[in-house]
Amino acid sequence: MDKFTTVSGPAAPMLGANIDTDVIIPIQRLVGTGRTGLGPYAFERMRYAKDGSDNPDFVLNRPQYRDSPILLAGANFGCGSSREGAVWALMGMGFRAVIAPSFGDIFFNNCFQNGLLPVRLPEDAIRRIADETEAAQGARHTVVDLARQVVVTPDGAEIPFSVDARKRDALLEGLDDIALTLKRKDEIIAWQAADRARRPWAWESVER
Amino acid sequence: MPATMFDKIWDPHVVADLGGGWSLLHCDRVLVHDLSGGRALQEVGEAGHPVARPDLVFATPDHAVSSAPGRTSETFPTGARLLAGLRKRAAETGVRLFDLGQDGNGIVHVMGPELGIVLPGTVLVCGDSHTCTNGGVGSLAFGIGASELRHVLATQTLPQRKPRTMRIRFEGTPPPGVTPKDMILAAIGRFGAAAGTGYAVEYAGSAVRALSVEGRLTLCNLSIEMGAKVGMVAPDETTFAWLHGRDFAPKGATWDAALADWRALPSDDDAVFDRDLLIDMRDIAPQITWGTSPEQVLPVTGRVPDPADAPDAEKRGAWEAALAYMGLTPGAPIEGTKVDWVFIGSCTNSRIEDLRAAAAVLRGRRVAPHVTAWVVPGSERVKHAAEAEGLHTAFLDAGFEWREPGCALCVAANGEAVPPGARCVSTSNRNFVGRQGTGARTHLASPAMAAAAALAGAIADVRSFAA
Predict the structure, then answer these.
(1) Total Cβ atoms within 10 A of residue B331
(2) pLDDT band for position A5 (cuts 50, 70, 90)
């Protein structure tokens, strides 16, 4: 996983609630493909006109937001399907942080696994960042600083956010979860042996 | 100290306290499917890790397989590559695979409980958000992404934070036409699509106790549409009778030991939930969604909402966008809206009781001529059981297509789709934009409501079609 440092750039506003992972990346793009190359398909049902050209009304097609590394979103962003491809598609589009009032649980967790930082901020703070960005026509940047746990708005105000310490450290250090857990392999095996004695029914019934 | 069922399952599954509120949680069962299973097994191997406990991992192709009558694994070529990968990796790693067309194959959340792979008191994970379905038998089951799937395959554990607990009690007896699907859609409509975010939900109350296991699986299935990764129903004699004798259920003396453990699982009477909600069954009528989020739902007798009546600007915008996508007129009765497609299937509503309920409405009647109507049984066993009862004849005689098991039109990952602009009443779980195909308009409802819509050629009140 890529280490996460500080992200800076224009924050693109897409503030509707309940943007689900089917909207972020249609399942058809995840059948028989890898995790790379999904960027062009992110939000494709909103992003393109019927003839395949860019839909000028879609906010992320506006010139000032085309290279935004920060997405401002509405409540319950990433609800729905567990597809991690939603994170890969957003990252493929260039996003490194998503700021929303709330997130779908599975998406939220998938973000951290890939180095996309989900930041929870109150709606009014997000609205403020959007307004300041719009007022400057995207020319002024928002900064997401994970180490200090603050978002710096285009006008320079600092808004603190909290992020789980374990997740923060994993992002900052680029840790491999599996390698960390495998250090506890003996503990896991001991737990399994003890559980087998405690709950034989959970084990015997699937033995070959 | 009084404990919830959730605590009683979670706490003993903690292998290690990782600090900061994190636990290393043991996963007793892992289910994998064709969409992500083959790749996950491959990537774990490529990273140099053996699959920790292949005996605890079970695989089934369901997402990207054709549902066409007479299908083979090659019918949908893109899916065929995924399935070939799953077969190869399952064989290499020793994971049991219930292959296409074989006994035991089916939608992962249908075949899991059906084979007794999913048991009360177990922790189960799968790379699919509807894993919450399996809480219907009293399992602590939740969906995970691709990274977590690799982690669990390599270690049989997951680092997790304990969610908060919520209880939703349904009290009373169901009014006519009200099924488990209507109960959970009504709850999502009332509490919202994010009400369960961060919670594990337990469904309780007299109306839940009265449900069959199939009904409980349906109820738990839509937990994630309320935001909750986990939904569960306490196991009871109904559960035990349903599980007894299933392929991977405990046998003999071990069964007796399991029963003793399972009987201790229900939440203590004085257990405290972080949020405790109540629904009076008298307040529920047959439900139908009108928008593009499961929270946008109405009683079938209701009218399409008017954005002018929305509580705030944000909701107004969401309603306007949903109505534009759905092609509906504010203030119009939802009943009578012309329907082009009907889909009965999915991990929500493809079990034998669902098919019985739909067939009961259809018998002796014909699907409206302009409607394409599909029924996709949830598994090989459901299909064969339905055929043994003659349910397939009821569907075929009415004008439905009787198809092969899989996820099919719920997720449209298998080359099948509702056409752009077409309106579909579906027994599945998501009415998201494009979910059933680009431009497809989805209305979620129960199997009986879907059958009624097929007959009427329009959204209809199942109570007008009493069997």
Answers:
(1) 11
(2) confident
